[in-house]
Amino acid sequence: MNILLLAQLAETPAQDPGALSNLTPPIQIALLLGAMSFATALMVCVTAFTRIIIVLSFVRRALSTQEIPPNPVMLGLALFLTLFVMAPTFESINEKAIQPLLEAQEIQAKDPTATPEFDFQQAWDITVVELKMFMMANTRTDDLELFFDLAETEPPYERLETPLKIAVPAFIISELKTAFIMGFCIYIPFLLIDLVVSTILMSLGMMMMPPVVVSTPCKILLFVLVDGWQLICKSLVSSFVAV
């Protein structure tokens, strides 16, 4: 709901920035905390984070290692892989939106009577376009068509003209589908190890021993021998379409 509300707000005209200064400090703090929650939703919903963290979770479950690696390690790896994948997009946003906005604010601070040549609304529009370029390059056409049908609207001629309220959910379910396909492919070799170990234990008459006790070290050994973390990271990064 937060990201959909943010998408609707993005398509409305910019409000008077001086209105915020008239609010009481508690309300300003509440708005700041709300903006931080929006930033978190934005990080999860419009970047590569969703696919990466789901695939890494599949790897941990396939290895049957419970909480190893720990959640902070998994989140940290997912975050920095996301920054690596999104680096071209973030650099473009910084160059085209953030830096011009900072320069315009610096000029206005020196001369309050000067008319700013670049405002927050322009910076936001450029940021949305850059994020849309990444999302549309990694979103399936049938997922977009699904939400256009649900919204009962006709698809635009250009993909970049897709409104955020359609682009974001379509991108999310497309990422979920891709992540689950990759997770299925990861599970297959480890499932075969479980089946082989279970068959061997049954043939030896060791039915009381849990197969996971024997299969887990075997899966970890296989994962280490094939340099699994390098393969997973390489596959994740190369699975995204560069823009």
Automatic annotation (TrEMBL):
<keyword id="KW-1005">Bacterial flagellum biogenesis</keyword>
<keyword id="KW-0969">Cilium</keyword>
<keyword id="KW-1133">Transmembrane helix</keyword>
<dbReference type="Pfam" id="PF00813">
    <property type="entry name" value="FliP"/>
</dbReference>
<comment type="similarity">
    <text>Belongs to the FliP/MopC/SpaP family.</text>
</comment>
<dbReference type="InterPro" id="IPR005837">
    <property type="entry name" value="FliP"/>
</dbReference>
<feature type="transmembrane region" description="Helical">
    <location>
        <begin position="179"/>
        <end position="201"/>
    </location>
</feature>
<keyword id="KW-0975">Bacterial flagellum</keyword>
<keyword id="KW-0813">Transport</keyword>
<keyword id="KW-0812">Transmembrane</keyword>
<keyword id="KW-0472">Membrane</keyword>
<dbReference type="GO" id="GO:0044781">
    <property type="term" value="P:bacterial-type flagellum organization"/>
</dbReference>
<dbReference type="GO" id="GO:0009306">
    <property type="term" value="P:protein secretion"/>
</dbReference>
<keyword id="KW-0282">Flagellum</keyword>
<comment type="function">
    <text>Plays a role in the flagellum-specific transport system.</text>
</comment>
<feature type="transmembrane region" description="Helical">
    <location>
        <begin position="30"/>
        <end position="59"/>
    </location>
</feature>
<keyword id="KW-0653">Protein transport</keyword>
<dbReference type="InterPro" id="IPR005838">
    <property type="entry name" value="T3SS_IM_P"/>
</dbReference>
<protein>
    <recommendedName>
        <fullName>Flagellar biosynthetic protein FliP</fullName>
    </recommendedName>
</protein>
<keyword id="KW-0966">Cell projection</keyword>
<dbReference type="GO" id="GO:0009425">
    <property type="term" value="C:bacterial-type flagellum basal body"/>
</dbReference>
<keyword id="KW-1006">Bacterial flagellum protein export</keyword>
<keyword id="KW-1003">Cell membrane</keyword>
<dbReference type="GO" id="GO:0005886">
    <property type="term" value="C:plasma membrane"/>
</dbReference>
<feature type="transmembrane region" description="Helical">
    <location>
        <begin position="71"/>
        <end position="90"/>
    </location>
</feature>
